[in-house]
Amino acid sequence: MFTNFTGDTRRARQVNLGGRGRQTANRESLLKKAADDRRKREEARKQDEAAKQIQLYWRKQVQEVRPKRLALKEKWLQSPDSVQEAIYFWRTLNMEEAKIVLQQCSELNAAPEQWSELGEEVCKWIISNGHKNASTILSTIAQYPVIIPSFFKAARVSEVTPEALNQQGRRNPAGFVLDYMTQEVNWQGIDLINVVLDTICKFARLPKNKAVGILSNMTQIGGDKFIPALSVVLSSVPFGDIPEELLERLEPLYSVNFVTQILDKYNYTDVSQVLVSLLRIHPERKQQVLQQLSLIDNPPVARVLWKSLFESGPIQKLYRDSMSANEVSEFLESSQYLHLTLLLELYSYWLIVTLDHEFRDQATTLLRFSEIENLMVVLKNLCVAMITNEIECNLIIAVLRQVYARDSRRPFLPKGFWLVRRLHVDTSFIKSLVEEEKMRLSQEHGVETTASRRMASRPSLSAMRSRNRTILSQLPFFIPFNTRVTLFEAFKAEDHSNVMGSEDVFLMHHTGRMGIDAPVIRGREFESAYEKLYSYGSELKKPLSIRFFNDFGPEAGIDGGGLTKEFLTSVTDDAFNTSRGLFAATDNHLLYPNPTTHDTKQLAFLGNLVGKGLYENILIEHGFASFFLQKWTQGSMRSSIDDLYSLDPNLYESLASLKQIYATQGDADLGLTFSIDYADSEGNVRTRDLIRNGSEVPVTKANYLRYIYEVANFKLNTSIRTQTDAFLGGLYQLIDPSWVSMFNADELQMLISGGHANVDVWDLKTHTNYGGYLDTDQTIKDFWTVFESFEEEDKRLLLKFVTSVSKAPLQGFKALNPSFAIRNAGRQVDRFPTASTCVNLLKLPDYQDIDQLRKKLLYAIRSHAGFDLS
């Protein structure tokens, strides 16, 4: 059990075979301790000797040197003799005496080395005082230019860092240079400007307080390193955090002369940092700088920037493909991104103030079509990469939208150019977006479902799904139109399921109540509908139970959907009639809110009705002006100056002529001011200022582009803002603004009133059902022969007769619900064809004669009868 037990109870003897015992170890420890003690005593002795030397020095200073310096100071203050003597007694001065000595020194003659020595003595004096007098003495130095160079020579250092600026000590006087440069200094005549600039250029970024102060002095100086130094200062200034008085002092940086001079002396890529910073620091002067850049045309600034950018490695990669997260981060820190930012700021401004014919003139345009196409390819790839990595890219999105708007108005890019293939728009793409919308709607309506609980429990959206949602809301034209229509229908279906709760469905099924009761009087369609339905607001998403009344009482018909369609058609026909005054029309008969109407409630109800049509897929046959439709999209599409042509061609031509005059003939006094005349609701002519005190601001060559912009903005936006807001308030009660923001103006018009294409007879025939007929019966063959021979107008009348609308659904007749149908109405050939619009049914007698069928059919569809004919 005890394997080591030998039976001997005595302790075994320990033998040290190394020859060293405990006494030896203790001896070495004692020797080491003794050596340490001797060293400490030696250090203490040296410290004592040093202290004695210091005491002797200070005794000598106090007893001999300081009295001499003080005596010399008193004598010198009475009768200044030389700068060298001032250097000798400088360290004995207090602040008030220092000010006097500096003033008197500035009046003396001295050798350059004496001025340098004085500057060094001042630096040492500031350091010895712990920087507490730095700002005061620097302000004093600023008054005497003869002393300034010596101070800078003394304070200049070989290497400085932002961290070192906050350190105290003689080895870091660079902070004094920067402090000095924040003072209100007259820089003219200083021969060491490059020393100042060189000091600034040693920093990647300056402290905010110093950068703001230095910036106020930068407008006075020049020099070879001016632009690099200005770049450092501007990049260190926080945007939107500059005192108003400093902004006033920065005005010279925004002058025509300054912009012209730096562009003449430096190439565009060198000044990108400066120009981009100037644009961001002082937004109110942004247009001023961009206008100057846009007027340079030999060659255009944008073209030069794009040429140099397109040849760079990062842009070439973006042209071919996208970027990884790391590559995007590196690119955003590169000089190429600065150049791209300047290019986009300039091009965005130019697109705002440029007319379509100028844009399309390849000889004078800022970028040619081929260059625009290449730039848009790069921006699409960069934008998708930045959105994927959740990086803000508002400027890129804005330019993409602007160019897309031009291309939508008058195409110049290849068909399908805007679609982004790498988005992989497939079933899963659509499903993910519908699920997110379903959760949003459930939360909005306070309805909790199993699906919404499951989605809410997820920590966050995946990067890919977040990207898809952002692109759908910000850049919907990256996604095919048919896909967006599918999403629109799916979003509405989800919303409808939330609106129509189980209680509503139960009541409608068991009580026979078909929905909101809506009696409509013929001849007073809009008034009667407004009186009955305006108060319902978003409740109008629920079904309506329409009952028409004419002079003889109620009309026949049960609303299974067809009466609702006829109701919306007849009420909107009445309401959008320009004689009512709610809406006005352009020369092309396109509608927009009447600027003189103030009945915002009726406008809101009209928005309800249009929203109801979109919600129920009921087409409304009214065309709206594009500048008005663009306002539906919450900023994803904006009006341009060219939209003014559709509203007021004469005003548009006048502005185009004005632009031509100032662009070609220079400054001209045309007697114009920043004001405009308009007619109020009573027909009286009034004057409105376009800017603050605009009637006192003349239009000149320097501001004519802004004048053109302000006039167009007033006509297209400001004058109808109240009316538009009222209409959209009603529309958004039924249709979520994010849904309509997926479409441009032309696409929205198709959603409202159907596609532009002619009636597709083959498509209608393919999706038609028959009752009492076979598709091989002679009457059916005759019907299609007659229908195909109709003029387009009569084809649309037939559609309106049967379905209550004259255009095909946007997705074709396969989307018509219920399907188009023809039923045998018997052999009473003296009867006319009739229709049940509620089920899209044509009741066609079995005429057996094609001529009789044509005659009866044309009479029926041209009679404009309602349900009475049925």
Protein traits:
870 residues; mainly alpha; Hect, E3 ligase catalytic domain fold; Hect, E3 ligase catalytic domain; four-stranded mixed beta sheet; three-stranded mixed beta sheet; elongated
Within the largest sheet, what's the order of strands? 8-9-11-10
What's the oligomerization state? single chain
Our Rg estimate from Cα atoms comes to 42 Å
Task: Determine the CATH superfamily of the domain at 505-639 and 729-753.
Answer: Hect, E3 ligase catalytic domains
- Could you list the spans in which at least 5 consecutive residues all have pLDDT below 50? 156-173, 450-460, 509-513, 866-870
Level of helix content? Answer: 55-70%
Biased composition (Basic and acidic residues): 29-47
Pathway: Protein modification; protein ubiquitination
EC number: 2.3.2.26
Domain HECT: 536-870
Please provide a brief summary of the model.
The protein is mostly helical and 870 residues long. 55% of the residues lie in helices and 5% in strands.
Structure description:
It is a single chain. A hairpin with a 5-residue loop joins strand 4 and strand 5 (591-593). Helix 8 packs across helix 10 (226-236), helix 22 crosses helix 23 (450-456) and helix 29 packs across helix 34 (721-731). The protein has 870 residues and is mainly alpha-helical. Among the domains are: 421-499, no CATH class; 505-639 and 729-753, Hect, E3 ligase catalytic domain fold; 642-716, Hect, E3 ligase catalytic domain (2-Layer Sandwich); 761-869, Hect, E3 ligase catalytic fold (2-Layer Sandwich). The chain has 40 helices and 11 strands. A 4-stranded mixed β-sheet has the order 8-9-11-10. Strands 1-2-3 form a 3-stranded mixed β-sheet. Strands 4-5 form a two-stranded antiparallel sheet. The radius of gyration is 42 Å and the shape is elongated. The model is unreliable at 156-173, 450-460, 509-513 and 866-870 (pLDDT under 50). Pathway: Protein modification; protein ubiquitination. Pfam families: HECT.
